[in-house]
């Protein structure tokens, strides 16, 4: 009998002889030294032996030595030799496996059977060992060759894998897996194989799992999974397998899914989940703190648990209680995993309805407990966990695993999480609401009014059914076999968990408005009383859900202004879904997304554009046109600008088709029946927007624009004429020329009558004139000629009354003698016209200059091209021109002409003032007449607007009236005037920055205005100036910071937007401004909460670690410069809001001396404790120990300072007590001296307030006064002495003129008393 084969530690260990007589390699052939012919002969010999001899010939020493020699040198063999050896070993083992069963059927005696069994066992182990050794060797060779390919460039291809090793590897490993599934008890004599054999197979299998490339082959992966599952489950190799599985999971993330597959396969194959249960118990027994440090391991283990729950829900549901303690751990990744596990279990573990009622109740209670845990985890401290919970709820909604009874609770949680401080949580909440709307069980329409009406109808019907229903007996209330337990363990109808199941046969119309309006008396019959109750409950739940989603609309509007792009994108998606289900308010909210088209974030713009196209454009041409014109009608100025931008973009891309443009023209021309003048104006507005990108759109309907825009319909719709003026401005250059040739006189006549006429209402006239004057300047070749007529006619309309010549003379001379008889409305119109003409003339001059420059540049290019082509001397001539600076001089001359032309508008250089210049002087004096202005606020608004326009045009006029402007902007009673002036200040700061620079503080002062409108405009103006680098951030930026806590939400949001944008500029100016803002805010009378909110927001905008570390130093040094406890607290609060790094914590510790003296205050100490608690969360062990030591030091100093403070307070109180005693003693001496002084030498005390005199006998011991009826005042000075002598002052009596007494005895008593006191 051959020696027994024992699995060695490695392949080379077979060459070592052991004392136990085991089989080992005795005569090893050095295959590498053989010539090719010898090697070929050797391989053929080994193959022949393995093929022709018996299966267990491999245990023969010579065959064993030969096979070992080839396996040892296997990586260096040629592919053909490799294939030959491998195939022989594999085929022999494959034949050996079925023959093992024959051992049980043989009738030989025990000795023969034992020898045969031993030979089979030896052969089985040898074949297994050599095959696994070949697989390991080949994989090592492949990985090393791959590494060499990465590190070195190879020109020739290596044929390592040319013999199709992947397919052979899978076949070999599958054979090993099959060998484990046969009855190995026949070979090993017991149900469990040899420990040495199992250890070798399992150990090497787990080592193969570490190779990610190997697991990509499905056949190989399946074989390895079978080996693991069979070894652990069939042969109870669980303890070692668990340790190896957990090690791999912790170390390699790619094995997670494959390990879960292996465990699930074993449970399914052998109906034994012991391996899975052991793994779950091991994870449950692990200390939760271990996962805090091993974050990668925690994530992998979490994924593994989720995979197990997905593949083995029943088993996981019975063991999930072991994992619940990890919910209290600090690792959020483990909590995330457990939440995912619960989600999988809720979906898959409770599906079957078989079993007894009691078991169903248990399962439902377990499910309810899991749902409650999910709801509770929505308030987890970690944002990642809160986000994961919401994602799980979305998954549950998608697969309809959330009952109607729980639906609204989940919706309320999602609505609340919309205001979460973390962006990822808000994103998950938005996605959850989208999923809940998409899969809601209540119907396709969720408007509140139809729900309420329908619910009321069915409640009435339910009341009628309850009245007519027979009284149930107690027996009817007992549960039957068809009933089941609800989530609370109560017996309920089987369909009660999902009332919608009872409604499957109902028409959907019961949820629609038609069910209320058309079927009030004929509601659909839903069946018996229980079904009606279920329907009413469902309607009530649907109504609550609709109200819950509707209540989120204000929050969604805020989220659209979020700085996070994901917030904006998902909010738009949710609003689109809300609109689809007709949620109240969703349409209005969607319109508020239009300004987001100006976002610099490309993803936000694309989201808005896609939503706009989906909602308004992807319709029929007529419907699209109607949507667009309705948008134009209902939009405000800001929305119109956004609509113009997006319409222009869509026209350029071709998303707005020609048929839609034609439909818009049909609405404008009243070709569609029922079109109103307002709709016509809206259609023309949209066409003007489209013409900005494609001016040819207006070419075919110029005549219609003139006829309708300035015809009778303009009187019906006042803004139609304004829109027509805009359309004329948008005409192409070619269309303008055609218009001048054909209808020029008529068009300018219409525009002039529009400006000078009175057929429009007051507000409509200002809007129309605002566009008519620019249209004249754009269309007319010499607009100054027609502008003169406009100003004169407007002036004549003002002077069209008695005294008109005098007023005209006043205007020309700048006086105001005859102003009292002027109509305010006409004068306001005149001021608007003259100022608007002046402003447009300035724009016209600038446009002329641009045209000249453009034409000259074109001419120079043409001349340069011609000279370059025709003359060789051109470069020399151009060089001479450049040296002489001819081009620069031409530019300077052009600039000089432009300045002169601009100066001529208001000031004028000639002795005679022009008309506009005369109006400027008159306007300045008019605005200074504050009495008149207060009497006519409308006139003041027009006058100040005109004055601001004149100031924008001319620098000298601006300088002369700046004081007036700031006086008005501060003191004007009308907030409209103050708002207009505030806006004008922004334009003046752009136009004349040097003139406005000394008034910077006054501009910031507008942020403190009592009017919301003025403050809002001030924020907008200053934001524009600062963010566009037209105004430096001065030391008054704290005024803008205070607006973060403005009572008006819009102003607060604008201030937040300003600081967000400011933080993106350069290296974040807020970092440099923060200390100054802190100092200024600390000195103002701000509430503590407001201060904290402001500083928290500003500090939150600083992201760089270096800046945070520098702020630590700056803030610490500020403690020494202030003595106010309130400021100490504010500085400490700002320190606590910083994001500390390790370096920042060390710097805080180093600067201890700078804030040591402030630690006596409890409020300051609380902030430092907060800093330390934050630092401990991220600190490494070394730093953590340092922080704990520092915390002890702070506490010690704090207690010492508190004791010193108490001691100082007690000392101060004691000193005050001593001082008071000294004061009382000195007061007593003074009183005695005053008494002595009052006693004159003649022995008389005179008191003018006494009423009568009472004599006293000489030598009496005291003075005694007789009480009178009217006496009301008395005073005594009593001092006890050693001889009990007393001095009493006389009691005063009313009505006495004087008081005299013989005082010899009294004087004697006083003298003796003083002597006694001195001696004592």
Automatic annotation (TrEMBL):
Similarity remark: Belongs to the CND1 (condensin subunit 1) family.
A single cellular component GO annotation: condensed chromosome, centromeric region
In which broad location class does this protein mainly occur, judging by the first location in its UniProt entry?
nucleus
For this entry, the protein name equals: Condensin-1 complex subunit CAP-D2
Q: Which GO terms describe its biological process?
A: cell division; meiotic chromosome condensation; mitotic chromosome condensation
Location of the protein in the cell: Chromosome; Nucleus
Q: Which InterPro entries does the record associate with it? A: ARM-like, ARM-type_fold, CND1/NCAPD3, Cnd1_C, Condensin_cplx_su1, Condensin_cplx_su1_N
Q: Which UniProt keywords apply?
A: Cell cycle, Cell division, Chromosome, DNA condensation, Mitosis, Nucleus
Q: Which Gene3D superfamilies match?
A: Leucine-rich Repeat Variant
- Which GO-annotated molecular functions does the record name? histone binding
**Annotated Pfam families:** Cnd1, Cnd1_N
Role, per record: Regulatory subunit of the condensin complex, a complex required for conversion of interphase chromatin into mitotic-like condense chromosomes. The condensin complex probably introduces positive supercoils into relaxed DNA in the presence of type I topoisomerases and converts nicked DNA into positive knotted forms in the presence of type II topoisomerases.
Organism of this sequence: Punica granatum (Pomegranate)
> Would you say which domain of life the source belongs to?
Eukaryota
């Amino acid at each position: 009998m051959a020696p027994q084969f024992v699995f060695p530690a490695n392949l080379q260990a077979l060459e070592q002889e052991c004392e136990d007589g085991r089989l080992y390699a005795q005569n090893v052939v050095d295959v590498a030294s053989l010539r090719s012919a010898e090697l070929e002969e050797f391989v053929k010999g080994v193959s022949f032996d393995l093929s022709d001899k018996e299966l267990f010939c491999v245990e023969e020493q010579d065959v064993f030595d030969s096979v070992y020699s080839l396996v040892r040198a296997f990586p260096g063999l040629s592919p053909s030799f490799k294939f030959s050896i491998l195939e022989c070993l594999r085929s022999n083992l494959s034949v050996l496996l079925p023959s093992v069963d024959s051992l049980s059927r043989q009738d030989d005696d025990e000795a023969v059977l034992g020898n045969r069994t031993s030979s089979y066992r030896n052969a089985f182990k040898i074949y297994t060992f050599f095959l696994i050794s070949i697989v390991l060797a080949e994989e090592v060779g492949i990985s090393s060759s791959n590494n060499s390919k990465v590190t070195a460039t190879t020109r020739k291809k290596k044929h390592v894998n040319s013999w199709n090793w992947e397919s052979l590897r899978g076949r070999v490993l599958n054979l090993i897996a099959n060998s484990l599934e046969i009855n190995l008890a026949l070979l090993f004599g017991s149900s469990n194989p040899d420990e040495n054999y199992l250890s070798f197979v399992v150990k090497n299998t787990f080592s193969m799992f570490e190779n990610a490339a190997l697991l990509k082959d499905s056949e190989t992966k399946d074989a390895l999974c079978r080996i693991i599952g069979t070894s652990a489950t069939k042969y109870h190799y669980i303890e070692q397998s668990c340790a190896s599985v957990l090690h791999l999971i912790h170390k390699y993330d790619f094995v997670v899914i494959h390990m879960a597959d292996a465990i699930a396969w074993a449970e399914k194959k052998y109906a034994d989940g012991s391996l899975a249960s052991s793994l779950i118990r091991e994870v449950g027994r692990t200390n939760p703190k271990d996962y805090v440090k091993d974050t990668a391991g925690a994530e992998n283990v979490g994924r593994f648990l989720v995979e197990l729950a997905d593949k083995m829900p029943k088993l996981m549901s019975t063991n999930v209680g072991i994992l619940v303690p990890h919910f209290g751990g600090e690792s959020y990744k483990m909590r995330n995993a457990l939440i995912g596990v619960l989600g999988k279990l809720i979906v898959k573990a409770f599906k079957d309805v078989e079993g007894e009622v009691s078991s169903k109740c248990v399962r439902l209670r377990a499910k309810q407990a899991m749902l409650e845990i999910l709801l509770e985890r929505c308030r987890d401290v970690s944002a990642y966990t809160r986000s994961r919970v919401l994602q799980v709820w979305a998954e549950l909604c998608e697969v309809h695993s959330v009952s109607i009874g729980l639906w609204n609770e989940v919706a309320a949680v999602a609505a609340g999480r919309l205001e979460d401080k973390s962006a990822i949580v808000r994103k998950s909440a938005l996605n959850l609401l989208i999923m809940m709307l998409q899969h809601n069980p209540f119907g396709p329409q969720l408007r509140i009014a139809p729900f309420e009406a329908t619910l009321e109808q069915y409640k009435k019907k339910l009341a009628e059914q309850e009245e007519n229903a027979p009284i149930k007996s107690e027996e009817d209330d007992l549960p039957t076999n068809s009933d089941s337990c609800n989530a609370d363990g109560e017996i309920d109808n089987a369909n009660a968990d999902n009332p919608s199941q009872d409604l499957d046969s109902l028409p959907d119309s019961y949820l629609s408005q038609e069910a209320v309006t058309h079927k009030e008396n004929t509601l659909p019959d839903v069946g018996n009383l229980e079904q009606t109750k279920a329907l009413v409950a469902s309607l009530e739940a649907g109504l609550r859900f609709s109200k819950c989603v509707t209540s989120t609309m204000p929050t969604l509007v805020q989220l659209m202004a979020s700085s996070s792009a994901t917030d904006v994108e998902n909010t738009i998606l949710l609003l689109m879904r809300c609109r689809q289900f007709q949620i109240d308010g969703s349409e209005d909210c969607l319109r508020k997304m239009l300004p987001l088209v100006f976002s610099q974030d490309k993803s936000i713009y694309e989201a808005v554009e896609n939503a706009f196209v989906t909602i308004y454009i992807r319709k029929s041409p007529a419907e699209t046109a109607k949507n667009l014109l309705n948008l134009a009608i209902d939009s405000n100025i800001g929305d119109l600008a956004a609509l113009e931008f997006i319409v222009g973009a869509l026209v350029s891309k071709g998303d707005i088709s020609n048929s839609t443009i034609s439909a818009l023209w049909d609405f404008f021309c009243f070709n569609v029946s029922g079109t109103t003048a307002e709709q016509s104006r809206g259609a023309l507005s949209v066409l003007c927007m489209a013409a900005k990108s494609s001016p040819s759109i207006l070419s075919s309907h110029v005549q219609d624009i003139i006829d309708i825009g300035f015809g009778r319909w303009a009187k019906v719709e006042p803004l139609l004429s304004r829109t027509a003026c805009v359309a004329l401005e948008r005409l192409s250059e070619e269309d303008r020329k055609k218009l001048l040739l054909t209808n020029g006189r008529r068009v300018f006549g219409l525009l002039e009558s529009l400006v000078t006429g009175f057929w429009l209402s007051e507000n409509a006239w200002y809007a129309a004139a605002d566009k008519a004057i620019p249209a004249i300047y754009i269309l007319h070749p010499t607009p100054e000629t027609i502008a003169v007529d406009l100003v004169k006619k407007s002036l004549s309309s003002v002077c069209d009354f008695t005294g008109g010549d005098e007023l005209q003379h006043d205007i020309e001379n700048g006086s105001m003698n005859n102003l009292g008889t002027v109509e305010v409305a006409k004068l306001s119109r005149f001021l608007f016209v003259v100022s608007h003409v002046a402003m447009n003339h300035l724009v016209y001059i600038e446009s002329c200059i641009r045209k000249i420059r453009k034409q000259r540049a074109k001419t120079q290019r043409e001349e340069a091209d011609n000279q370059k082509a025709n003359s060789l001397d051109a470069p020399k001539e151009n060089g001479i021109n450049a040296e002489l600076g001819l081009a620069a001089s031409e530019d300077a001359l052009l600039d000089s002409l432009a300045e002169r032309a601009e100066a001529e508008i208001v000031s004028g250089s000639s002795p005679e003032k022009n008309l506009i210049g005369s109006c400027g002087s008159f306007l300045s004096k008019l605005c200074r007449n504050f009495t008149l202005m207060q009497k006519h606020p409308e006139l003041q608004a027009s006058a100040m607007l005109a004055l601001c326009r004149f100031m924008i045009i001319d620098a000298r006029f601006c300088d002369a009236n700046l004081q007036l402007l700031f006086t008005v902007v501060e003191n004007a009673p009308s907030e409209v005037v103050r708002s207009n002036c505030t806006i004008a200040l922004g334009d003046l700061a752009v136009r004349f920055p040097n003139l406005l620079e000394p008034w910077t503080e006054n501009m910031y002062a507008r942020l403190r205005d009592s009017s919301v409108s003025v403050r809002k405009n001030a924020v907008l103006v200053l934001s524009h100036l600062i963010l566009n680098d037209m105004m430096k951030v001065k030391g008054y930026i704290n005024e803008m910071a205070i607006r973060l806590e403005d009572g008006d939400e819009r102003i607060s949001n604008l201030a937040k937007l300003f600081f967000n944008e400011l933080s993106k500029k350069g290296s974040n100016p807020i970092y440099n401004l923060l200390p100054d803002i802190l100092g200024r805010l600390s000195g103002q009378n701000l509430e503590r909460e407001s201060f904290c909110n402001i500083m928290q927001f500003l500090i939150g905008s600083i992201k760089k670690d270096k800046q945070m570390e520098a702020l630590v130093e700056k803030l610490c040094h500020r403690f020494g410069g202030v003595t106010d406890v309130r400021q100490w607290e504010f500085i400490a609060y700002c320190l606590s809001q910083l994001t500390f790094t390790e370096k920042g914590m060390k710097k805080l510790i180093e600067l201890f001396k700078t804030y040591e003296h402030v630690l006596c205050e409890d409020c300051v100490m609380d902030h430092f404790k907060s800093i330390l608690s934050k630092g401990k969360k991220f600190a490494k062990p070394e730093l953590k120990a340092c922080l704990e030591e520092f915390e002890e030091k702070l506490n010690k100093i704090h207690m010492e300072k508190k004791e010193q403070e108490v001691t100082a307070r007690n000392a101060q109180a004691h000193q005050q007590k001593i001082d008071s005693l000294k004061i009382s003693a000195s007061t007593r001496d003074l009183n005695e001296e005053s008494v002595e002084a009052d006693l004159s030498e003649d022995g008389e005390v005179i008191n003018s307030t006494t009423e009568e005199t009472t004599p006293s006998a000489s030598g009496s011991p005291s003075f005694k006064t007789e009480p009178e009826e009217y006496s009301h005042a008395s005073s005594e000075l009593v001092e006890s002495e050693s001889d009990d002598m007393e001095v009493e002052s006389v009691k005063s009596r009313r009505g006495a003129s004087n008081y005299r007494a013989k005082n010899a005895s009294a004087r004697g008593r006083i003298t003796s008393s003083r002597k006694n006191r001195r001696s004592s």
